[in-house]
Structures are given as C-alpha cells and as structure tokens.
Amino acid sequence: MSTTPYSAQHISSLKADTPSFLALQEHYAATKNIPLRALFDGDPDRFASFTVEAAGLFLDYAKNTLTSETMSLLFNLARERHVEARREAMFVGEKINTTEHRAVLHTALRTPWPPSSAAAALVVDGQQVNADVHAVLEQIATFTESVRSEKWRGYNGKPITDIVNIGIGGSDLGPKMVCQALRPFQHARLTMHFVSNVDGHDIDAVLSKIDPATTLFVIASKTFTTMETMMNAHSARQWFLTQAETATETDLAHHFVAVSTNTEGVKAFGIDPQNMFPFWDWVGGRYSVWSSIGLSVALAIGFERFSEFLAGAHAMDSHFRSAPLEQNMPAILALVGVWQRNFCGSASLSIAPYHQDLGNFPSYLQQLEMESNGKRTALDGSPVEVNTCPVIWGNVGTNGQHAYFQLLHQGTDITPVDFIAALAPEHRLPGHQAALLANCFAQSEAFMRGKSADEVRAEMQTKGMPEDQITALLPHRTFPGNRPSNTILMQKLTPAALGALIALYEHKVFVQGVIWGINSFDQWGVELGKVMATHILDELNTNATCDSSVGKHDSSTNGLINRARAVLMAAKSDAA
Ligand SMILES: O=P(O)(O)OC[C@H]1O[C@](O)(CO)[C@@H](O)[C@@H]1O
C-alpha cells in the first residue's frame, strides 16, 4: 500500500493560510464587486470558455462570478491538495476510507466485462473484484429476466405485478430515484413501490394497495441490521403470511429476496441465500445503486437498460480518471462549488431539475453530498479549518419557481443553483418542452442579470405609472442579480445519461472531499441518534413508572417520552 504524502492518514484539513487558499482569498477580494453582467458584456466568448462536455453531458458554468484567473487558481488548489493522485488511489482500490479500513470501489461496479487489460483487472485483499461483480450481474440478469418474463411466479402460480423495495438511505434513495427517472422505460406489468420509513404509515399505504399473491418484496440492506428496514421487512413477512390465502412459510421463497453483504443476517430472517444478491463492504450505501442494490431498477427497466445505465456511469468514470483537471467536468463542478462555498460564502446549494422524472434527484443528492462531506474532522483527525459541505436542497422546475425562487432572487442569502435539463422529452405533448426549457434558461439569466433600479423605473414609466407609485415600488421590484448557477444539459433522460449524471456528482463529491481533507466515505454522524433511539424505544415499551425508567434524560426528552408512553400504553391495553 502506498505511503506517499497523499495517503489518507497524512491528510490534514485544507488550511486557510496555504498559498493557494490565500491567493484565492485575495483574488475574491479584488474581484467581488465585478458584476456577472459585466463579465458577460466584457467577453463575448464567455460561454465557450466556461463550458465543458463529457459522457453525453454538457456543463455551462459561465453564470458564476468567476474568471479564467479564478479557475486557474482553483486548479492550483486542486493540485496542491493532490486531487489527481487521490483520484488514482480510489480507482486502484487503495483503502482511502481510512476510518473503516475499506477501499472505495463503486467505479468497479460499472467497469465493462471482461476488463480491457490484465492491468485493469482489480484484485483487492485477494478478491477478484471484476470477476465477482460480473458474477452478481449475471445473477441479476437471470433473475430479473425470469420475473419480467413471468417464469418466476408467486406461490399460487400468478405472475408478479408489484415489486416492493424495502430499504432506507442508500438502499432506498438510489433505486427510488432511478426508477422514477427512468419511468418511461419501465415494464408495463410491474408497479414499483418503495418503503423506507419506520413510520408504519409508509408500509401501510403500500400494503393496502397490493395483492400478496402477485407481490415480490426486495429487502435491501447492506448491513441487514438497520432498524427501519428490519421492522418493515418483518411487518411485510407477517402481512404476507396472514393475507395470502393458503400460503405457508415455504411460500415466502417466491415473494421475498434480499440484497445485502450480510449472509448470516439474511438467513436468520428466513430468506434462502439462493435468493440473496450479494455486494461488498467496499461499496458505500450512498454509492450502491450500481450494485445489487439496483435490483429493483433492473427489475423495472430490464437488464439491458440497466447495463446502459452502468455504461453511462463508466463513460463519466473514464473521463474523470483521464481528463486533465482543466477539462474535467466533475473536477470543474467541484471547484466551482469550492469557490462558492469557501470564498463567496454560500451556505447552501439548490438543485433544480427541469424534468419531472428527476423529482427525487435533490433528495438523492442530499444523502450523496451531505452524508459524504458533512464532516468537521480531517482525515488525520484534526479539526477542519474551513467550511465543508453546503446544505443541499431543491425541487423540480417549474414548481420551485412558484414556491421558493422568490428567496433565491431577492432573499438576503446568495444561493447557487444547479439547473439540470434534458433537451428532448420522452412524451409527445406539443408545447410543453419549449415552455419548460424557456423557464429553465430564463431563471438562470434572471439570477445572473437581475433588474436594475433604472431598468425597473424605465419600465414603470413606459406603463404610465405615477411618479409617487414608482418611487414606492422601485426597491421592491428591483432584482440584485449576480446570483450564480450551473446548467447541466443532456440530450434525453436515458439510462446512460442518468448514469453519467449520477457519476458526475459522485466524483464532484470526491474532489471536494479531497480538497477539504475529509473522508467522504464514512458516516459516523448518523450513529449517535440511532443508538439513543434504541434506548428510548426500550423505555417507551416498558411499563415501569415513568420517572424511574426515564430519569436519565434531560427534562425535555423525559417529558416527551412520558407523554408518548401514556398514549402507547393506553393503545396497548385497548388492543389486549
Ligand atoms: O443498507 P443499510 O445497511 O440498511 O443502511 C442504510 C443507510 O443507513 C446509513 O448507514 C446511515 O443512515 C446509510 O449510509 C445507508 O445508506
């Protein structure tokens, strides 16, 4: 294993006094008052200079308050942080996830088979990575084909009509987002459902509309210990046994399959390991849709389309791994984000897909970005000295325009926006696509240009508005502009384009993590609440007098537990 200076355990936080950081700070101070409008007016070639194309995607980052000098300083920063060497360390399977002692190899899940050369074949801890990935893909291909072709049937001989994916976090958000995004490619007989929340209303709503005889449950959990997933899986199992007429325990095999790294856990639940689709600890939950966690996707769109999805991501991997930083789309997207976050001071990033089928993309990115880079400790254990991941949020356009875009245009914070659009639609309805794209492009232009007081005044005067009204309304109707955005375009939202889009953001997150000096692949921050919930669950389920059993909490938590327990206990005795 490499012990070069870029080995993870030697990496400290990005420091505000490093030469490249100081140079960027100085540059920001010198350029911050130049309006974006002026940058466009002064350079007719700005669009050509600040756009990049790769793997079927087109990125326009010209509407950011930056110049070629900014970019060159950012590339210096990336090189100073050893982005290229760290990138290679990830691809070749070094254990860059140092706090969990794991390699990070989601890119191997989409490497074509057989690998192009012996050198490309990955061996990690003695495991033939590519061969193992390929074997599981074959298993997925055979199984999904048999369900789709009606060979695989329910216990009383009926074909499967409904698939229920039970999982949470990466075992839910990825498959759910991708199935929605690729809705037009979905098998006509199959309806996809996703259950994630421990709140019983979630699974109850799904169970109330499906037939046990024609339903397949996919229990998706890397660990097979996650409280939410296990509780939902047990409820589904119980529901099946009570609702499916004449069904016995042996019939469960027709209706429950598992996706996991934990064979023992799957067996203990009662699923035959024959019906288990494995993956490996070097696949992080939020990077797992390419693994067997994508089983629901492959069931929905078929294995051929699933392969196209993997190929799209691989095309972005190849670009990311080989393109110089100056032409490297994920690196550029990451560096623009670092500029916005660490120098321009933006605390959040809004994601605006102008495509209804990408409705779940913002929530997917919330986990990808915030669980990866929402960290305050550097790889070497020291405190991080600069701001890390911004808050990620958003919704589809044009809906967002009629909700929170007011704040984006005229609020007190400057929030960068990533616009994402497909040029051609899957539907044939006249007029809609042009209207959608017109709104997308208009919003980014409006954020950039704003509307000056002089322009607003002239407009109101042309309309013949009295001077006193003009004076009163002027400040309200003025737009400051200078609000940054990126626009990502694809031809159509195909499996390959979606694969490339997700991989683009995965690698953006990686580059930002390297620059900030953090481990983008662990998630210790989710542990504390999980453990405390198990204790409180025990307390809510006991009959002991409130004060003695819950006395160890603060008065607020204690009071809340007591109020809830009174209701839960009453419901229990009513049911008895
Ligand atoms: O697939 P599992 O093991 O059930 O975990 C689900 C999710 O829980 C987390 O571990 C923490 O919330 C995520 O990283 C993961 O995607």
UniProtKB/TrEMBL annotation:
Pathway(s) served: Carbohydrate degradation; glycolysis; D-glyceraldehyde 3-phosphate and glycerone phosphate from D-glucose: step 2/4; Carbohydrate biosynthesis; gluconeogenesis
GO cellular component terms, A-Z: cytosol
Subcellular location: Cytoplasm
Residues annotated as signal peptide: none
Record: active site: E371, H402, K530
Presence of keyword Coiled coil: no
Catalytic activity of the protein: alpha-D-glucose 6-phosphate = beta-D-fructose 6-phosphate
Keywords from the UniProt entry: Cytoplasm, Gluconeogenesis, Glycolysis, Isomerase
Domain of life: Bacteria
Entries under Pfam families matching the protein: PGI
Protein name: Glucose-6-phosphate isomerase
Primary localization class, coarse: cytoplasm
Molecular function GO labels: carbohydrate derivative binding; glucose-6-phosphate isomerase activity; monosaccharide binding
Annotated GO biological process: gluconeogenesis; glucose 6-phosphate metabolic process; glycolytic process
EC number: 5.3.1.9
InterPro entries tied to this protein: G6P_Isomerase, G6P_Isomerase_C, Phosphoglucose_isomerase_CS, SIS_dom_sf, SIS_PGI_1, SIS_PGI_2
Family: Belongs to the GPI family.
Protein function: Catalyzes the reversible isomerization of glucose-6-phosphate to fructose-6-phosphate.
Alphabetical list of PROSITE patterns matching this protein: P_GLUCOSE_ISOMERASE_1, P_GLUCOSE_ISOMERASE_2, P_GLUCOSE_ISOMERASE_3
